[in-house]
Amino acid sequence: MTSVLAGVQVVAVADVDLEIAGSVAGPLGASVHKSGEALIADSSVDAVVVCSWGPTHEQYVLAAIAAGKPVFCEKPLATTQEACLRILEAEVAHGSRLVQVGYMRRYDASYRALKAVLRSGELGAPLMMHCAHRNASVPGFYEKEMAITDTAVHEIDMVRWMFGEEITAVRVLRPRRSANGGDLQDPLLLLFEMENGALVDVETSVNIRYGYDIRGEIVGENGTAALGSLSPVQVRVAGRTSDPVPTDWRERFLTAYDVEFQEWIDSLRTAGRPIGPSAWDGYAAAVVSDAGVAALRSGERVPVSLTDRPKLYAPEVPA
Ligand code: ISE
Questions:
Q1: Are 110 and 241 found together in one domain?
Q2: Which of 63, 126, 254, 296 is the most exposed place for a label (fewest CB within 10 A)?
Q3: What PANTHER family has UniProt attached to this entry (predicted)?
């Protein structure tokens, strides 16, 4: 952050492993705190980034809101919708936005270009979107629900942002299981119903070996638009054409992470508040992913029911 981004400096670091915190803080001349709460209370800290594991998010985000400090929280905002609601209530009581959630697909150049085409109106009304979210492999602690709560949750946020409307119901189909996934139910096929009747399908394949591959195609009344190829080079050799495929999300979304942080920093400096994905977006994603988990378990269509949207989170005005 200190060396890549402008207008920001890392001044303090906390981690459950103090040695790791020290190794990050040392070269930056930053201080080390024993707890997230101590870091948030540090008067030299103007804004906080929470990238600890999910179950700790609620406590740090609430502490930052209580201190009146802007807080960037990696997804998920919290691990249950009840915890997300507590965050919404605290922020609404504070009276202005402090929270931004790390849904970084919104900062990826390809997704932004796709949204610009959609907004231009040349496709006509969007009727469907086909998405694929493929990981080469996943770590040993990855459980079957994570295909929804950790993986497809990116599409859940992206499609709400892309279409500018909420998801109203979810279904999950289980195709034949891949032998690469061990006991995991992999792949999955999710189907989202959107407010205006459009349908979105999302394939999650998290052990597909060949690489990290993210796809998206919108089908409109008059045409289609898809995320383009990201390859800077195409090789033709020995009778075959090939493009490199990224190995994981760090490689695929490297630039999006930087754009996301830079825009967060710039919004805090210029508008005094975050303008990216809000606590409402974090809450909505949690409710949809809970509906997805219920649909996976029951095999049924599960409606999504959101609480009333507080005025603080007025819907985005279309550009
Ligand atoms: C991981 O947490 C991510 O955020 C990645 O983008 C996603 O592809 C992966 O499946 C998740 O586990």
A1: yes
A2: 254
A3: INOSITOL 2-DEHYDROGENASE, PTHR43593
